[in-house]
Amino acid sequence: MALQIGSKAPDFTLFNSELKEVSLSDYIGKKVIIHFFPMAFTGVCTTQLCTLRDNFGLYENLNAVVLGISVDSPFTLAKFKAENNYQFPLLSDFNKTVSQAYGAFYNEFVFNLKGVAKRAAFVLDAQQHIIYSEVLDSAGDLPNFLAIDALIK
């Protein structure tokens, strides 16, 4: 079920690539941009996160936090983050609970892989209500960065 604009975002606590717990509630008072991505080290996922990396100054100047979430392990995410110089946290939804809560979940993905995050983007206001929601059925598509950036401004 898709999350509705105006609804409270589901809270979560996940391990980041530095093996520290990160909760959504840690960011109350800031806008939060959440990007789900299927798998580290794949072409479109790298493009998605590198776009965030390259626009990071905009988000930082507007008091917005960027979080990347996939079902990859924290160890895989650490390597992915280091190789691409991402300045924002990558969070491991290895148990797949957050991807499912946000409606960003493939039961079956390519190569018969089960339980992979869909590519998706959410923007939350400072009280953690959803002000933008985009869940993509095709893993080959990218989120609408222009729409996201317009909401953050």
Shape: globular
Number of strands: 9
The run of helices and strands is: EEEHHEHEHEEEEH
CATH homologous superfamily?
Answer: Glutaredoxin
Helix content: 25-40%
Give the helix tally: 5
**Poorly predicted runs of 5 or more residues:** none
Kindly report the CATH topology.
Glutaredoxin
Q: Specify the CATH architecture.
A: 3-Layer(aba) Sandwich
The rounded Rg comes to: 14 Å
Overall structural domain count: 1
The CATH top-level class label: Alpha Beta
Strand order, main sheet: write it out: 2-1-5-4-3-8-9
Major beta-sheet overview: 7 strands, mixed
Percentage of residues in strands: 25-35%
Distance between the termini: 28 Å
Mean pLDDT across all residues, rounded? Answer: 94
Class from secondary-structure proportions:
alpha+beta
Helix-strand layout with pairing:
Elements: E1 13-16, E2 21-23, E3 31-36, H1 43-54, H2 56-61, E4 64-70, H3 74-84, E5 90-92, H4 97-101, E6 105-108, E7 114-117, E8 120-124, E9 130-135, H5 145-152
Parallel strand pairs: 3-4, 4-5
Antiparallel strand pairs: 1-2, 1-5, 3-8, 6-7, 8-9
Q: Main traits of this protein?
A:
alpha+beta; 5 helices; 153 residues; Glutaredoxin; seven-stranded mixed β-sheet
